[in-house]
Amino acid sequence: MKKSLKILFLLLFAMQVLPASAQKFGYIDTEYILNKHPDYKVIQQELQSLSNAWKKEAQNLDKEIKDLYDQLKAEEVLLTEEMYQERQEVIKQKQQESQAFNSRIFGIEGQYYQKQAELLQPLQSKIYDAIERVSRKNGLAVLFDKAAGPSAIIYTDPRHDYSEFVLEELGIEENN
């Protein structure tokens, strides 16, 4: 009898402790959240506009190089060796300028990516703050990002998707 009473108390104690130690998990899709946010569309348009202007400038440099090369080929028979070498040197300089421009604008730490980071940082901070508030409100121990990559999450149950809660926290309506 005493042994069964101990087991009963042990089971009751375990039932009280186990739920308290359970952690609550969820996930969000930041790509979905960003695409629903009106500021993101404005940022994307601004970046597209900048990108188009810079691409046009790069194309103009490339066209200038091509024109110089075509002109050199057309006049090749009329030029002395020294003149030919001078023009080839001008073409090489223009090619280096073009490469430097592309690297400066579209390179790893180029102006395009710096501008993208500058424009997105306030929005990302706003979204992160909303994510933190939603996590605290819902008592989540861990919140995964479905958009982080294919290896981050293999399966998701829509019941645990907190993306709509984050949108709600940001004040974004579902009508988009």
UniProtKB/TrEMBL annotation:
Keywords: Coiled coil, Signal
GO CC, one annotated term: cytosol
Keyword Ubl conjugation included in the entry's annotation: no
Pfam families per the UniProt record, alphabetical: OmpH
Keyword Methyltransferase: no
Signal sequence annotation: 1-22
SUPFAM superfamilies listed in its UniProt record: OmpH-like
GO biological process terms on file: protein stabilization
A GO MF label: unfolded protein binding
Coiled-coil residue spans: 44-78
Domain of life: Bacteria
Membership in a protein family: Belongs to the Skp family.
Protein name in the entry: Outer membrane protein, OmpH family
Lineage start: Bacteria, Pseudomonadati, Bacteroidota, Cytophagia, Cytophagales
